[in-house]
Amino acid sequence: MSTITNHMPTEELQALDAAHHMHPFTANGELAQKGARVITRADGVTLTDSEGNQILDAMAGLWCVNIGYGRDELADVAARQMRELPYYNTFFQTTHRPAIELAQKIAQLAPGDLNNVFFAGSGSEANDTNIRMVRHYWALKGKPSKSIIISRKNAYHGSSVGSGSLGGMSAMHEQGGLPIPDVHHINQPNWWAEGGDMSPEDFGIARAQELEQAILELGEDRVAAFIAEPVQGAGGVIVAPDSYWPEVQKICDKYEILLIADEVICGFGRTGEWFGSQKLDIRPDIMTIAKGLSSGYAPIGGSVVSDEVASVIAQSEFNHGYTYSGHPVAAAVALENLRILEEENILGHVRDVAAPYLKEKWESLVAHPLVGEAKIVGMMGSIALTPHKESRAAFAAETGTVGYICRERCFANNLVMRHVGDRMIISPPLILKPEEIDMLMDRALTSLDECYAQIK
Ligand code: PLP
Protein backbone atom coordinates (compact mmCIF):
# COMPACT_ATOMS: atom_id res chain seq x y z
CA MET A 1 0.00 0.00 0.00
CA SER A 2 1.66 3.25 -1.17
CA THR A 3 1.14 6.53 0.64
CA ILE A 4 -0.16 9.10 -1.81
CA THR A 5 1.65 12.38 -1.23
CA ASN A 6 1.42 15.80 -2.82
CA HIS A 7 4.90 15.30 -4.20
CA MET A 8 4.38 11.89 -5.76
CA PRO A 9 5.45 11.98 -9.44
CA THR A 10 2.64 11.91 -11.97
CA GLU A 11 3.72 8.54 -13.43
CA GLU A 12 3.47 6.88 -10.04
CA LEU A 13 0.01 8.33 -9.44
CA GLN A 14 -1.04 7.17 -12.89
CA ALA A 15 0.30 3.68 -12.31
CA LEU A 16 -1.58 3.34 -9.02
CA ASP A 17 -4.69 4.78 -10.62
CA ALA A 18 -4.49 2.29 -13.48
CA ALA A 19 -3.94 -0.58 -11.03
CA HIS A 20 -7.02 0.00 -8.86
CA HIS A 21 -9.35 2.68 -10.14
CA MET A 22 -12.10 1.78 -12.64
CA HIS A 23 -13.09 4.98 -14.44
CA PRO A 24 -16.56 5.99 -15.61
CA PHE A 25 -17.05 6.75 -19.33
CA THR A 26 -13.38 6.31 -20.21
CA ALA A 27 -11.68 4.62 -23.18
CA ASN A 28 -9.85 2.01 -21.13
CA GLY A 29 -7.31 1.10 -23.82
CA GLU A 30 -6.16 4.68 -24.03
CA LEU A 31 -6.20 5.06 -20.26
CA ALA A 32 -3.86 2.07 -19.90
CA GLN A 33 -1.57 3.49 -22.56
CA LYS A 34 -1.42 7.17 -21.58
CA GLY A 35 -2.54 7.23 -17.96
CA ALA A 36 -5.12 9.61 -16.53
CA ARG A 37 -4.65 13.34 -16.20
CA VAL A 38 -4.24 14.09 -12.49
CA ILE A 39 -6.00 17.26 -11.34
CA THR A 40 -4.63 18.60 -8.08
CA ARG A 41 -6.26 21.99 -7.43
CA ALA A 42 -8.76 24.42 -8.86
CA ASP A 43 -9.59 28.06 -8.40
CA GLY A 44 -12.11 30.24 -10.23
CA VAL A 45 -12.23 28.79 -13.75
CA THR A 46 -8.74 27.29 -13.68
CA LEU A 47 -7.60 23.75 -12.95
CA THR A 48 -4.06 22.83 -11.99
CA ASP A 49 -2.73 19.38 -12.88
CA SER A 50 0.07 17.36 -11.32
CA GLU A 51 2.51 18.74 -13.88
CA GLY A 52 1.67 22.30 -12.86
CA ASN A 53 -0.30 23.12 -16.01
CA GLN A 54 -2.97 25.81 -15.61
CA ILE A 55 -6.00 24.67 -17.57
CA LEU A 56 -9.07 26.75 -18.38
CA ASP A 57 -12.06 24.56 -17.55
CA ALA A 58 -14.61 25.41 -20.21
CA MET A 59 -16.79 22.50 -19.03
CA ALA A 60 -17.15 23.54 -15.36
CA GLY A 61 -16.18 20.01 -14.38
CA LEU A 62 -19.11 18.03 -15.71
CA TRP A 63 -21.35 21.06 -16.39
CA CYS A 64 -21.69 21.65 -12.69
CA VAL A 65 -19.30 24.14 -11.10
CA ASN A 66 -21.57 27.10 -11.82
CA ILE A 67 -20.08 29.45 -9.20
CA GLY A 68 -16.50 28.45 -10.03
CA TYR A 69 -13.93 26.65 -7.93
CA GLY A 70 -12.36 27.62 -4.63
CA ARG A 71 -15.25 29.20 -2.73
CA ASP A 72 -14.25 28.86 0.92
CA GLU A 73 -17.76 29.72 2.08
CA LEU A 74 -18.98 26.30 0.93
CA ALA A 75 -16.12 24.54 2.69
CA ASP A 76 -16.90 26.46 5.89
CA VAL A 77 -20.59 25.62 5.73
CA ALA A 78 -19.80 21.94 5.11
CA ALA A 79 -17.43 21.83 8.09
CA ARG A 80 -19.96 23.55 10.33
CA GLN A 81 -22.76 21.23 9.27
CA MET A 82 -20.56 18.15 9.70
CA ARG A 83 -19.89 19.16 13.27
CA GLU A 84 -23.52 19.97 14.06
CA LEU A 85 -25.34 17.15 12.28
CA PRO A 86 -23.22 15.21 9.76
CA TYR A 87 -25.98 12.85 8.83
CA TYR A 88 -29.52 12.03 9.49
CA ASN A 89 -32.13 10.60 7.18
CA THR A 90 -35.46 12.01 6.08
CA PHE A 91 -37.37 8.72 6.15
CA PHE A 92 -40.11 7.80 8.65
CA GLN A 93 -41.47 11.24 9.59
CA THR A 94 -38.06 12.77 10.26
CA THR A 95 -36.47 15.92 8.92
CA HIS A 96 -33.76 18.46 9.66
CA ARG A 97 -33.15 22.14 9.12
CA PRO A 98 -30.96 22.01 5.96
CA ALA A 99 -33.49 19.84 4.11
CA ILE A 100 -36.41 22.05 5.18
CA GLU A 101 -34.63 25.25 4.20
CA LEU A 102 -33.34 23.95 0.88
CA ALA A 103 -36.72 22.56 -0.20
CA GLN A 104 -38.30 25.92 0.64
CA LYS A 105 -35.61 27.81 -1.30
CA ILE A 106 -35.95 25.61 -4.39
CA ALA A 107 -39.74 26.03 -4.27
CA GLN A 108 -39.24 29.80 -4.17
CA LEU A 109 -36.93 29.77 -7.20
CA ALA A 110 -38.86 27.23 -9.28
CA PRO A 111 -41.51 28.45 -11.72
CA GLY A 112 -45.27 27.99 -11.42
CA ASP A 113 -46.57 25.62 -8.78
CA LEU A 114 -43.40 23.50 -8.62
CA ASN A 115 -43.35 23.79 -4.86
CA ASN A 116 -42.35 20.33 -3.71
CA VAL A 117 -38.94 18.68 -3.67
CA PHE A 118 -38.04 15.00 -3.43
CA PHE A 119 -34.29 14.85 -2.77
CA ALA A 120 -31.82 12.42 -4.29
CA GLY A 121 -28.06 12.10 -4.37
CA SER A 122 -27.66 12.75 -8.11
CA GLY A 123 -29.44 13.47 -11.37
CA SER A 124 -29.62 9.77 -12.20
CA GLU A 125 -31.31 8.98 -8.92
CA ALA A 126 -33.71 11.88 -9.36
CA ASN A 127 -34.74 10.59 -12.78
CA ASP A 128 -35.23 7.13 -11.29
CA THR A 129 -37.51 8.81 -8.76
CA ASN A 130 -39.38 10.43 -11.65
CA ILE A 131 -40.01 7.09 -13.37
CA ARG A 132 -41.54 5.65 -10.24
CA MET A 133 -43.34 8.85 -9.29
CA VAL A 134 -45.14 9.42 -12.59
CA ARG A 135 -46.21 5.77 -12.84
CA HIS A 136 -47.39 5.79 -9.22
CA TYR A 137 -49.20 9.08 -9.81
CA TRP A 138 -51.26 7.60 -12.63
CA ALA A 139 -51.91 4.41 -10.67
CA LEU A 140 -53.24 6.49 -7.78
CA LYS A 141 -55.46 8.34 -10.23
CA GLY A 142 -56.95 5.02 -11.30
CA LYS A 143 -55.02 4.80 -14.57
CA PRO A 144 -52.27 2.22 -13.91
CA SER A 145 -51.91 1.47 -17.62
CA LYS A 146 -50.39 4.94 -18.13
CA SER A 147 -46.83 3.75 -17.61
CA ILE A 148 -44.92 4.55 -20.80
CA ILE A 149 -42.44 7.41 -20.66
CA ILE A 150 -41.55 9.00 -23.98
CA SER A 151 -38.04 10.33 -24.31
CA ARG A 152 -35.70 11.24 -27.16
CA LYS A 153 -32.87 9.53 -28.98
CA ASN A 154 -29.48 10.97 -28.02
CA ALA A 155 -30.90 12.37 -24.77
CA TYR A 156 -28.90 11.92 -21.57
CA HIS A 157 -30.76 11.46 -18.31
CA GLY A 158 -28.19 9.56 -16.23
CA SER A 159 -26.43 6.26 -15.98
CA SER A 160 -28.48 4.08 -13.61
CA VAL A 161 -30.63 1.36 -15.16
CA GLY A 162 -33.73 3.54 -15.03
CA SER A 163 -32.26 6.89 -16.03
CA GLY A 164 -30.01 5.26 -18.63
CA SER A 165 -33.15 3.77 -20.14
CA LEU A 166 -34.80 7.17 -20.26
CA GLY A 167 -31.72 8.45 -22.05
CA GLY A 168 -31.46 7.72 -25.72
CA MET A 169 -27.77 6.91 -25.98
CA SER A 170 -27.45 3.78 -28.10
CA ALA A 171 -23.92 3.07 -26.81
CA MET A 172 -25.37 2.84 -23.32
CA HIS A 173 -28.32 0.71 -24.35
CA GLU A 174 -25.88 -1.78 -25.88
CA GLN A 175 -24.52 -2.62 -22.43
CA GLY A 176 -26.25 -4.09 -19.42
CA GLY A 177 -29.68 -4.87 -20.79
CA LEU A 178 -31.15 -1.40 -21.23
CA PRO A 179 -33.73 -0.03 -21.76
CA ILE A 180 -36.26 -1.17 -19.17
CA PRO A 181 -39.79 -1.80 -20.50
CA ASP A 182 -42.22 1.01 -21.25
CA VAL A 183 -39.74 3.63 -22.35
CA HIS A 184 -40.20 4.88 -25.91
CA HIS A 185 -37.78 7.11 -27.81
CA ILE A 186 -38.65 9.61 -30.52
CA ASN A 187 -36.18 11.53 -32.69
CA GLN A 188 -34.24 14.53 -31.41
CA PRO A 189 -34.53 18.09 -32.81
CA ASN A 190 -30.97 18.09 -34.18
CA TRP A 191 -31.37 20.08 -37.40
CA TRP A 192 -27.66 20.14 -38.29
CA ALA A 193 -27.31 16.37 -38.38
CA GLU A 194 -30.82 15.26 -39.29
CA GLY A 195 -32.70 18.20 -40.80
CA GLY A 196 -32.04 17.26 -44.45
CA ASP A 197 -33.56 19.79 -46.83
CA MET A 198 -36.09 21.15 -44.34
CA SER A 199 -35.82 24.63 -42.88
CA PRO A 200 -34.91 24.59 -39.17
CA GLU A 201 -38.40 25.86 -38.30
CA ASP A 202 -40.25 23.19 -40.31
CA PHE A 203 -37.93 20.56 -38.92
CA GLY A 204 -38.60 21.73 -35.35
CA ILE A 205 -42.35 21.35 -35.89
CA ALA A 206 -41.91 17.95 -37.54
CA ARG A 207 -39.80 16.63 -34.68
CA ALA A 208 -42.25 17.98 -32.07
CA GLN A 209 -45.11 16.33 -33.91
CA GLU A 210 -43.36 12.98 -33.51
CA LEU A 211 -44.42 13.27 -29.88
CA GLU A 212 -48.07 13.50 -30.91
CA GLN A 213 -47.67 10.59 -33.34
CA ALA A 214 -46.10 8.49 -30.59
CA ILE A 215 -48.91 9.32 -28.16
CA LEU A 216 -51.50 8.36 -30.76
CA GLU A 217 -49.72 5.15 -31.74
CA LEU A 218 -49.01 4.01 -28.18
CA GLY A 219 -52.40 5.22 -26.94
CA GLU A 220 -53.04 8.20 -24.68
CA ASP A 221 -54.19 5.72 -22.03
CA ARG A 222 -50.70 4.16 -22.02
CA VAL A 223 -48.49 7.25 -21.89
CA ALA A 224 -47.49 8.63 -18.48
CA ALA A 225 -45.00 11.35 -19.34
CA PHE A 226 -42.61 12.97 -21.78
CA ILE A 227 -39.10 13.78 -20.55
CA ALA A 228 -36.61 16.10 -22.22
CA GLU A 229 -33.73 18.43 -21.48
CA PRO A 230 -34.64 22.03 -22.42
CA VAL A 231 -31.30 22.10 -24.27
CA GLN A 232 -29.78 18.66 -24.87
CA GLY A 233 -26.42 18.75 -23.12
CA ALA A 234 -24.40 15.55 -23.28
CA GLY A 235 -25.92 14.79 -26.69
CA GLY A 236 -23.84 17.69 -28.03
CA VAL A 237 -25.52 20.91 -26.83
CA ILE A 238 -28.30 20.50 -29.35
CA VAL A 239 -30.39 23.67 -29.37
CA ALA A 240 -33.81 22.90 -30.83
CA PRO A 241 -35.19 25.23 -33.53
CA ASP A 242 -37.39 27.98 -32.04
CA SER A 243 -40.52 26.25 -33.33
CA TYR A 244 -39.90 23.05 -31.35
CA TRP A 245 -40.76 23.74 -27.71
CA PRO A 246 -43.99 25.73 -28.28
CA GLU A 247 -45.28 22.80 -30.34
CA VAL A 248 -44.20 20.24 -27.72
CA GLN A 249 -45.89 22.28 -25.00
CA LYS A 250 -49.09 22.42 -27.07
CA ILE A 251 -49.07 18.64 -27.48
CA CYS A 252 -48.44 18.03 -23.77
CA ASP A 253 -51.33 20.38 -22.93
CA LYS A 254 -53.64 18.64 -25.40
CA TYR A 255 -53.09 15.11 -24.10
CA GLU A 256 -53.17 13.95 -20.53
CA ILE A 257 -49.44 13.35 -20.09
CA LEU A 258 -46.95 14.84 -17.67
CA LEU A 259 -44.01 16.90 -18.86
CA ILE A 260 -40.67 16.31 -17.11
CA ALA A 261 -38.00 18.91 -17.84
CA ASP A 262 -34.58 17.52 -17.04
CA GLU A 263 -32.86 20.65 -15.75
CA VAL A 264 -29.76 18.89 -14.45
CA ILE A 265 -27.57 20.95 -16.78
CA CYS A 266 -29.87 23.86 -17.68
CA GLY A 267 -30.84 24.61 -14.08
CA PHE A 268 -29.35 27.18 -11.70
CA GLY A 269 -28.35 29.87 -14.13
CA ARG A 270 -26.73 28.14 -17.08
CA THR A 271 -29.18 29.65 -19.58
CA GLY A 272 -29.24 33.02 -17.79
CA GLU A 273 -32.50 32.13 -16.01
CA TRP A 274 -32.82 30.00 -12.91
CA PHE A 275 -34.16 27.20 -15.09
CA GLY A 276 -34.01 26.42 -18.80
CA SER A 277 -37.78 25.98 -18.70
CA GLN A 278 -38.13 29.70 -17.96
CA LYS A 279 -35.77 30.60 -20.78
CA LEU A 280 -37.69 28.48 -23.30
CA ASP A 281 -41.18 29.05 -21.89
CA ILE A 282 -41.75 25.43 -20.93
CA ARG A 283 -44.28 24.57 -18.21
CA PRO A 284 -43.15 21.27 -16.69
CA ASP A 285 -44.99 19.18 -14.11
CA ILE A 286 -41.68 17.92 -12.74
CA MET A 287 -38.11 19.21 -13.04
CA THR A 288 -35.03 17.09 -12.46
CA ILE A 289 -32.25 19.02 -10.71
CA ALA A 290 -28.65 18.25 -9.63
CA LYS A 291 -25.21 19.60 -10.66
CA GLY A 292 -25.57 23.41 -10.38
CA LEU A 293 -27.77 23.00 -7.28
CA SER A 294 -24.56 22.66 -5.26
CA SER A 295 -22.17 23.74 -8.05
CA GLY A 296 -20.83 20.21 -7.71
CA TYR A 297 -19.30 20.91 -4.28
CA ALA A 298 -21.47 18.14 -2.79
CA PRO A 299 -23.49 15.38 -4.46
CA ILE A 300 -27.18 16.27 -4.41
CA GLY A 301 -30.11 16.14 -6.82
CA GLY A 302 -33.86 16.09 -6.71
CA SER A 303 -37.24 16.17 -8.38
CA VAL A 304 -39.16 19.42 -8.16
CA VAL A 305 -42.81 18.50 -8.35
CA SER A 306 -46.02 20.42 -9.04
CA ASP A 307 -48.63 20.85 -6.32
CA GLU A 308 -51.05 18.70 -8.31
CA VAL A 309 -48.66 15.73 -8.70
CA ALA A 310 -47.36 16.07 -5.13
CA SER A 311 -50.87 16.14 -3.68
CA VAL A 312 -51.73 12.87 -5.41
CA ILE A 313 -48.46 11.21 -4.33
CA ALA A 314 -49.17 12.36 -0.77
CA GLN A 315 -52.38 10.31 -0.67
CA SER A 316 -50.42 7.26 0.48
CA GLU A 317 -46.89 6.20 1.38
CA PHE A 318 -44.47 6.48 -1.57
CA ASN A 319 -42.24 3.45 -1.10
CA HIS A 320 -39.16 5.15 -2.40
CA GLY A 321 -36.12 7.00 -1.04
CA TYR A 322 -32.36 7.10 -0.78
CA THR A 323 -30.12 7.00 2.29
CA TYR A 324 -28.77 10.35 1.18
CA SER A 325 -32.09 12.00 0.25
CA GLY A 326 -31.70 15.53 1.62
CA HIS A 327 -28.27 14.79 3.14
CA PRO A 328 -27.71 17.60 5.65
CA VAL A 329 -24.17 18.47 4.57
CA ALA A 330 -25.04 18.42 0.85
CA ALA A 331 -28.21 20.46 1.54
CA ALA A 332 -26.28 23.05 3.57
CA VAL A 333 -23.68 23.34 0.80
CA ALA A 334 -26.42 23.71 -1.82
CA LEU A 335 -28.06 26.47 0.23
CA GLU A 336 -24.78 28.37 0.44
CA ASN A 337 -24.29 27.92 -3.30
CA LEU A 338 -27.77 29.35 -3.98
CA ARG A 339 -27.04 32.23 -1.63
CA ILE A 340 -23.90 33.07 -3.61
CA LEU A 341 -25.68 32.75 -6.96
CA GLU A 342 -28.39 35.11 -5.70
CA GLU A 343 -26.45 37.64 -3.61
CA GLU A 344 -23.63 38.02 -6.12
CA ASN A 345 -26.18 38.34 -8.93
CA ILE A 346 -24.39 35.70 -10.96
CA LEU A 347 -27.43 35.28 -13.22
CA GLY A 348 -27.26 39.00 -13.92
CA HIS A 349 -23.58 38.61 -14.82
CA VAL A 350 -24.54 35.80 -17.22
CA ARG A 351 -27.35 37.79 -18.82
CA ASP A 352 -25.64 41.18 -19.06
CA VAL A 353 -21.94 40.41 -19.37
CA ALA A 354 -20.74 36.86 -19.93
CA ALA A 355 -23.39 35.34 -22.20
CA PRO A 356 -23.66 38.25 -24.71
CA TYR A 357 -19.86 38.49 -25.04
CA LEU A 358 -19.39 34.74 -25.27
CA LYS A 359 -22.20 34.51 -27.87
CA GLU A 360 -20.59 37.13 -30.08
CA LYS A 361 -17.21 35.38 -29.94
CA TRP A 362 -18.57 31.86 -30.15
CA GLU A 363 -20.75 32.55 -33.18
CA SER A 364 -17.78 34.09 -34.97
CA LEU A 365 -16.22 30.60 -35.02
CA VAL A 366 -18.32 29.78 -38.09
CA ALA A 367 -15.71 31.71 -40.05
CA HIS A 368 -13.25 28.90 -39.33
CA PRO A 369 -12.92 26.41 -42.21
CA LEU A 370 -13.79 23.45 -39.94
CA VAL A 371 -16.88 24.92 -38.29
CA GLY A 372 -20.32 24.46 -39.85
CA GLU A 373 -22.64 25.81 -37.19
CA ALA A 374 -22.15 27.49 -33.83
CA LYS A 375 -24.97 27.28 -31.29
CA ILE A 376 -25.15 28.87 -27.89
CA VAL A 377 -27.74 29.45 -25.17
CA GLY A 378 -26.51 31.36 -22.14
CA MET A 379 -23.36 29.59 -21.01
CA MET A 380 -23.66 26.37 -23.01
CA GLY A 381 -22.46 26.21 -26.58
CA SER A 382 -21.47 23.85 -29.38
CA ILE A 383 -19.86 23.91 -32.79
CA ALA A 384 -20.31 21.30 -35.49
CA LEU A 385 -17.10 20.34 -37.30
CA THR A 386 -17.56 19.48 -40.94
CA PRO A 387 -15.54 18.96 -44.14
CA HIS A 388 -18.24 20.78 -46.14
CA LYS A 389 -20.40 23.48 -44.59
CA GLU A 390 -23.06 23.86 -47.29
CA SER A 391 -24.04 20.18 -47.34
CA ARG A 392 -23.51 19.78 -43.56
CA ALA A 393 -21.48 16.68 -44.43
CA ALA A 394 -19.90 14.34 -41.90
CA PHE A 395 -16.21 13.43 -42.14
CA ALA A 396 -15.25 10.25 -43.97
CA ALA A 397 -14.57 7.34 -41.62
CA GLU A 398 -10.86 7.22 -42.54
CA THR A 399 -10.39 10.81 -41.26
CA GLY A 400 -11.07 9.52 -37.73
CA THR A 401 -13.14 11.32 -35.12
CA VAL A 402 -12.22 14.93 -35.78
CA GLY A 403 -13.89 16.03 -32.55
CA TYR A 404 -11.55 13.75 -30.65
CA ILE A 405 -8.51 15.18 -32.45
CA CYS A 406 -9.72 18.69 -31.66
CA ARG A 407 -10.31 17.82 -28.00
CA GLU A 408 -6.75 16.51 -27.73
CA ARG A 409 -5.43 19.75 -29.24
CA CYS A 410 -7.52 21.67 -26.66
CA PHE A 411 -5.93 19.70 -23.82
CA ALA A 412 -2.49 20.39 -25.27
CA ASN A 413 -3.40 24.09 -25.25
CA ASN A 414 -4.59 24.02 -21.64
CA LEU A 415 -8.29 24.18 -22.43
CA VAL A 416 -10.96 21.66 -21.42
CA MET A 417 -13.56 21.39 -24.17
CA ARG A 418 -15.48 18.19 -24.68
CA HIS A 419 -16.40 16.50 -27.94
CA VAL A 420 -19.49 14.51 -28.84
CA GLY A 421 -18.58 12.86 -32.11
CA ASP A 422 -17.60 15.82 -34.27
CA ARG A 423 -19.34 18.43 -32.12
CA MET A 424 -17.22 20.45 -29.71
CA ILE A 425 -19.03 21.68 -26.63
CA ILE A 426 -18.51 24.15 -23.79
CA SER A 427 -20.30 24.79 -20.53
CA PRO A 428 -17.97 27.00 -18.48
CA PRO A 429 -18.46 28.32 -14.95
CA LEU A 430 -21.01 31.14 -14.98
CA ILE A 431 -18.54 33.55 -13.39
CA LEU A 432 -16.36 33.62 -16.53
CA LYS A 433 -14.98 37.14 -17.08
CA PRO A 434 -14.57 38.80 -20.50
CA GLU A 435 -10.78 38.39 -20.39
CA GLU A 436 -11.24 34.68 -19.62
CA ILE A 437 -13.62 34.45 -22.58
CA ASP A 438 -10.85 35.94 -24.73
CA MET A 439 -8.43 33.33 -23.40
CA LEU A 440 -10.95 30.55 -24.05
CA MET A 441 -11.48 31.73 -27.62
CA ASP A 442 -7.75 32.11 -28.32
CA ARG A 443 -7.07 28.57 -27.14
CA ALA A 444 -10.10 27.19 -29.00
CA LEU A 445 -9.01 28.84 -32.25
CA THR A 446 -5.43 27.62 -31.89
CA SER A 447 -6.76 24.11 -31.27
CA LEU A 448 -9.07 24.29 -34.28
CA ASP A 449 -6.20 25.48 -36.48
CA GLU A 450 -3.97 22.66 -35.28
CA CYS A 451 -6.76 20.13 -35.76
CA TYR A 452 -7.37 21.44 -39.29
CA ALA A 453 -3.64 21.19 -40.10
CA GLN A 454 -3.56 17.64 -38.75
CA ILE A 455 -6.43 16.26 -40.86
CA LYS A 456 -5.57 18.04 -44.12
N1 PLP B 1 -29.72 14.53 -16.60
C1 PLP B 1 -28.92 15.26 -17.36
C2 PLP B 1 -29.53 16.22 -18.34
C3 PLP B 1 -27.53 15.18 -17.26
O1 PLP B 1 -26.74 15.91 -18.06
C4 PLP B 1 -27.00 14.30 -16.30
C5 PLP B 1 -25.55 14.18 -16.14
O2 PLP B 1 -24.77 14.65 -16.94
C6 PLP B 1 -27.87 13.53 -15.53
C7 PLP B 1 -29.23 13.68 -15.68
C8 PLP B 1 -27.35 12.56 -14.53
O3 PLP B 1 -26.85 13.21 -13.43
P1 PLP B 1 -25.81 12.47 -12.46
O4 PLP B 1 -24.56 12.25 -13.23
O5 PLP B 1 -25.69 13.42 -11.31
O6 PLP B 1 -26.43 11.19 -12.03
TrEMBL record:
The cofactors required by this protein are: pyridoxal 5'-phosphate
Q: Does the keyword Flavoprotein feature in the UniProt annotation?
A: no
MF terms from GO for this chain are: pyridoxal phosphate binding; transaminase activity
Recite the UniProt keywords alphabetically. Answer: Aminotransferase, Pyridoxal phosphate, Transferase
One Pfam family assigned to this protein is Aminotran_3
PROSITE patterns (alphabetical): AA_TRANSFER_CLASS_3
Q: Which InterPro entries match?
A: Aminotrans_3, Aminotrans_3_PPA_site, PyrdxlP-dep_Trfase, PyrdxlP-dep_Trfase_major, PyrdxlP-dep_Trfase_small
Family of this protein: Belongs to the class-III pyridoxal-phosphate-dependent aminotransferase family.
- Annotated PANTHER family: AMINOTRANSFERASE, AMINOTRANSFERASE CLASS-III
What name goes with this protein?
A: Aminotransferase class III-fold pyridoxal phosphate-dependent enzyme
